[in-house]
Amino acid sequence: MNLHSQPKPESEFMSLITQAFSVSPLSLLISLISQIISTDSDRKLEWDLDRPLCGTLFGEPEPELVSLVYQIFSLKGCNGKNHEEYEQARDEIKYHLHRKHSLQLVFFSEGKERKCYCCDEDLQMVIYCCLSCDFAMNMTCVKKPPVLSIDHPKWHEHTLALFPRHAFLTCNLCALADSNSPLYMCPPCDFVVHLRCIDLPRVIRISRHHHRISFTSSFDQGRLSCGICQRNIDNDYGGYSCIKDGCSYVAHSKCATQRNVWDGKELEGEPEEETEEIEPFVKISDGIIQHFSHQHHYLRLDDNTNRDYDENKECQACIRPIYFGNFYSCMQCDFILHEECANLSRQIYHPIHPHMLSLGYDNIVDHEVMCAAYTSLWTDGFFYECGKEGCGFKLPVQFATISEPLVHESHMHHLFLTSKPEEEPRRCSVCKESRYARTNETFNCIECDFALCFVCATLPQKVRYKHDKHVLSLTLSYGKETSTMTYWCEICEETIDPTKRFYVCDEYCCLTLHINCLLGWDLYMKPGSSSFYLEKKEGLLVKRSFVAEAKKKVHIVYLGEKQHDDPEFVTESHHRMLWSLLGSKEDAHNSMVHSYRHGFSGFAAKLTKSQAKKIADLPDVVHVVPDSFYKLATTRTWDYLGLSAANPKSLLHETNMGEHSIIGVIDTGVWPESEVFNDSGFGPVPSHWKGSCESGENFTSSNCNKKLIGAKYFISGFQAENESFNSTESLDFISPRDFDGHGTHVSTIAGGSYVPNISYKGLAGGTVRGGAPRARIAMYKACWYLDDEDITTCSSADILKAMDEAMHDGVDVLSISLGSEVPLSDETDIRDGMTTGAFHAVLKGITVVCSGGNSGPDALTVTNTAPWMVTVAATTLDRSFPTPLTLGNNKVILGQAMYTGPELGFTSLVYPENPGNSNESFSGTCEELFLNSNHTMEGKVVLCFTTSPYGGAALRAARYVKRAGGLGVIIARHPGFAIQPCQDDFPCVAVDWVLGTDILLYARSSGSPVVKIQPSKTLVGQPVGTKVATFSSRGPNSIAPAILKPDIAAPGVSILAATTNTTFSDRGFIMLSGTSMAAPAISGVVALLKALHRDWSPAAIRSAIVTTAWRTDPFGEQIFAEGSPPKLADPFDYGGGLVNPEKAANPGLVYDLGLEDYILYMCSVGYNETSISQLVGKRTVCSNPKPSILDFNLPSITIPNLKNEVTLTRTLTNVGPLKSVYKVAVEPPLGFQVTVTPETLVFNARTKKVYYKVKVSTKHKINTGFYFGSLTWSDSVHNVTIPLSVRTQILQNYYDEN
User: Fold this and answer.
1) Peptide bond preceding 1217: is omega within 30 degrees of 0, i.e. cis?
2) Which residue, of 148, 303, 709, 823, has the greatest Cβ tally within 10 A?
3) Which value, to the nearest 10 degrees, does the dihedral of the CA atoms of residues 750, 751, 754, 760 take?
4) Which residues form the DC1 domain (predicted)?
């Protein structure tokens, strides 16, 4: 019972409370009064709470106490009405149908639905109730004389007499034994009926059944269940059954007459209604229709069987992308419907509503009707709505198309719509805490307390994602962890809670996504559409509006080459542009994230999609794109590459180890205390340096020195996109200080100082140093650790700002070990922000070196492909870490590991498989070792096999075995992935499948197989060969196949360098692998070349490196490219080859490029003249016909689509002796004829540049793959070699899959 409360003036109210303090029992009274005082007009005391309180207080109440408390209640309950009626009513009465207790007069609030015992109507404001039991009646019913007998031949032939007690007897009509209605009975017949049941209808139609049902006084023997609540039917009492012969549908009387099931119409004697079927569309011809929702255009049926997923194709009915299946698309606009949505019935009945529903649609953006199943969910697209006047019921088609019984993957039992109108909303067992979790309608299990909301019931089980070719499935976990792995969402890059549902790739790529990240937070609204909700404030309902997904995201606004030399003026112009868009100076200031004002003009700002579109339409704007994020892509390296300090004539000595070069590194920061930043013996900082050291968390300017001369950090873009990031609680340092260790590691490789006697736990021992040991390092921290997801990520906006600052500061080379993923954006499009920043850096003479990516060995995966960047692939060193495995038959197998723990003596060896007589689960797959019981692996070394292309399989296998009490694991896998140490130096050794099979055969043939694992050793030089690493991304270039990428290769596997003080480090040094490690090796070489040749352009430096590279390893052995299977490396694996630093210092000739060459390149690939003009800072008009991309003066020739023959041009610049004569030598690709004109090039004091022509013709008559060769100019001292890659395409633009 609820007591309505409207307080009178405080003085009178408090006076009564003061009087009450003298009344006993005091503690109980104070407790009650405190509840009264705390109860305001918006908060009600529930009847279930009041009753025991009042029963305790008034069990034996004193009269003055009763009077006082009810005065308090009456003061709280007065609403200014019913005063006269209330004054005349007695506070306490006796009632003949409730003789046990007196009834008290109270005010009743309508918050909870209750019926009067006597008249079965809703309780009014002034009522009499029993404070000891569940009895309540309207005050007006007290004055009515009781009806002692009734005649109702519809239900019983005899007169029925009023039962003179408030009692629990089973009603013959509703089969319920409740006491909330007067009872009438026929004593001779033992017939009992509630007063409220006398008006039950005879024949009705309900929403849960498609036929009429009629009342029956009893049912045939047999077990029957109510079709609504699913509970058993008592055959001896009344209920409803279907009127159709052969239909066994039955329902309880009360269930069938619920207001959400029955429309209130008695149909006895009424003819059956006939409903005309209305077709949703008119068929125009085969596959062409005119749909009622889009009558002004025709729709065509499209086959979606073999199409790539397009996230922009969204069904207008269900607001879902076209994941699978055929669809209808408008022949004149972008209107789309799923085939099944186009066939939706125009009229239906749905179980949760008693009236017929009609299919509708709404083209209005502002919605005024919410979903009837959810008061917090707004509908969009198509919906079913009730046509009854004043009803307002509306249901999205997603909800309307599911019914009961529901078989759902989230639960083992069938689910039913058993909710009753008067019940409290149930909480969905799956989503629990979501904003959709409470609803009046849920699918419920009748075997347990499981409930499923409509949202969870309608989530698609299979979906597609734009960056994954595979199907993604919805996980079934809810409320409990199903995995010990850490998952993170590919979209928001936040950690995924394994206790909640999420989408995961069905294949091996392990991609995972939050549901809301993929489908949107407003699941059934179109992006940008708006609606409202009602919020109670100060007793009033206030209308609040919202827009679906109207969230501001960081966008990069690129304005091209800066038009003014004053940086402050450039920044002010950026603020003025934002001000004009946003309307206020304050909003412009708050929106701005970065102003790019040194190397080029542009800014990053927080904008909505509509704001971004408006600013993109301004005439000065080149591009506006959303911010994107990039991922993070030694003791032996330099000796292996022949860059040795032992030779007094080496490049190191000629350049004083690069002392006058400055290497800028954009990465995760720097650990300044590391020995690799020692500046002992360094001279003054180079005069062209204009940078500085920024202070921050645990970092001051004193952390810099003559080695580490600059350190800055850029976090605004990252923070704007990651609102959950807490800078005070994050493990990362809000300063240039490195937390991840990646930035310190790559800085070491590029330019670390000499540090002798370093190893990783005894492996790979020697002296650590960078390629240019005396070069200066400037760190630009743009990558940050996101604690929630345990990942490090880099905002494109922050990277661009770091590049802008580096251009101002005076770096000579930019080393960027970061990368995006294919598909790529064009070079004039700043979706790839690094490409745009690199272009401006190169025009200022800064060589930009980037990692090629870690997505190999698949073709077309190389990134950072702009022709002005130097893109680096990764190779192995001539070093490995063999780990002896001795089997019980004394056979020794040399696996690979970084195991530095004690020798593991002969130990039981097991391959988990069913011996044939066990009911347990067994799996020898490395990723599924957790399926084995602990005793299968406990105390043993476990052999497992994996086909996974990811190195993480070994780490997971080690974790599963260690957790089960195992002592070691042997992983049989495909060769080529970097070896990693396992946590806590757990013995985990990798072998290939052949050796793994040998071990398996031994284990199966031996009754008690055993194995011994010895610590790993370091093996350097032959017979260990050099290979292109499996993970190293491969060409050809996916955006411009005629531009060879990668350019060059360098060691990037198991590289020992400095890091932070991490768990896995040894005295601050660690071995890491990736093209991230290969790129700074090239950066170090570039720093040396820049110190030797200050006047060389970035293109000349790149040419010197490419044309002098090794195409074998340094010992003359062929370089293989790891993969499945391994193959001889070609230019798409390693570009020009393996870098040869000493040769690069004196290349003889170079293929140089300048601004005009880059403009001709962009014209040749068809870029917009306006975009090119703004990019380069001057008006550009492309020639007609446009130039050929094949003439772009790269140190390579790549012809991706040769049909017959083609002639192209290259220009060579002499950087060697003034008088030089070079002759050509060609290794033509197989099946091609290559002619070079002239065959001799002569250089002298006046002739420093000479061009030559190359004619290439094909002998092939079919479309082929690429064939490879080379073209070399030689003067007997210098060999200037470029790779030649050609593919025949007789049928142009043809996808070959026959």
Assistant:
1) no
2) 709
3) -30
4) 154-198, 208-256, 292-342, 410-457, 466-517
In the block, residue with structure tokens 């130096």? 985
DSSP-derived 3-state class of residue 931: helix
Phi, psi for residue 1282 in degrees, rounded to 5: -125, 150
d(CA 523, CA 529): 12
Q: Could you tell me how many helices (H) and strands (E) the chain has, helices first?
A: 29, 74
Contact status, residue 216 vs residue 405, Cβ threshold 8 Å: no
Q: Is 1296 a catalytic residue?
A: no
Burial class (CB in 10 A: 0-12, 13-18, 19+), 923: middle
The residue from 98, 594, 742, 974 that is catalytic is 742
Q: What is this structure's pTM?
A: 0.61
pLDDT score of 483 more than 80: no
Provide φ and ψ at 1016, rounded to 5°: -70, 155
Higher pLDDT, 196 or 798: 798
> Are residues 28 and 57 in contact, defined by beta-carbon separation less than 8 angstroms?
yes
Find the angle CA(749)-CA(753)-CA(755) to the nearest 5 degrees: 95
Cβ(870)–Cβ(847) below 8 Å: yes
Which residues, 6 or more positions from 1005, have their beta carbon under 8 angstroms from its beta carbon? none
pLDDT at 1259 over 90: yes
- Of 122-131, 348-357, 578-587, 755-764, the one with minimum mean pLDDT is 122-131
Which has more pLDDT, 30 or 380? Answer: 380
Q: Is 248 a catalytic residue?
A: no
Q: In what order do the strands lie in the sheet with 1266-1274?
A: 1197-1202, 1279-1288, 1266-1274, 1220-1227, 1240-1243
Sheet strands (E) in 911-1005: 941-945, 968-972, 988-991
Q: Are 1194 and 1211 in contact (CB under 8 A)?
A: no
Instruction: Detail the DSSP E strand segments found in 521-616.
Output: 530-537, 540-547, 553-560, 592-596, 601-607
Q: What is the pLDDT of residues 421-466, one digit of tens each?
A: 777 777 888 877 544 444 568 888 888 888 888 888 888 888 888 7
Q: What is the DSSP letter of 1286?
A: E
Q: Which of 419-423, 637-641, 1271-1275 shows the lowest per-residue confidence on average (mean pLDDT)?
A: 637-641
Per-residue pLDDT tens over the stretch 1032-1046: 999 999 888 999 999
Q: Which of 1002, 1023, 1022 has the alpha carbon at shortest distance from 1011?
A: 1002
Total residue count of the chain as it appears in this document: 1298
- Give the separation between CA 1004 and CA 996, rounded to whole angstroms: 12
**Of residues 655 and 667, more confidently modeled:** 667
Q: What's the whole-number mean pLDDT along residues 966-978? A: 84
The residue that leads in pLDDT, 114 or 200, is 200
Identified catalytic residue from 380, 639, 667, 740:
667
Which H or E run includes 609? helix 609-616
Please report, for residues 83, 708, 806, 1067, 1168, the alpha-carbon distance to residue 692 in angstroms, rounded to integers and kept in the order given: 82, 10, 11, 29, 38
Q: 1272 and 1109 in contact (C-beta within 8 Å)?
A: no
Which range among 177-191, 278-292, 1018-1032 shows the weakest confidence by mean pLDDT? 177-191
pLDDT of residue 677: 96
> Any catalytic annotation for residue 688?
no
Given pLDDT bands bounded at 50, 70 and 90, which one contains residue 688? very high
Counting Cα atoms < 13 Å in the Cβ hemisphere of 649 gives: 2
Question: What letters, b where the CB count within 10 A reaches 16 and e where it falls short, cover 992-1023?
Answer: eeebbebbbebbeeeeebbbbbbbbebeeeee
pLDDT score recorded for residue 903:
93
* Closest alpha carbon to 508 in 67, 990, 927: 927
pLDDT for the residue 412: 85
Task: Note the pLDDT tens digit of each residue in 20-43.
Answer: 444 445 445 555 554 444 444 333
> Cβ distance 56 to 65 under 8 Å?
no
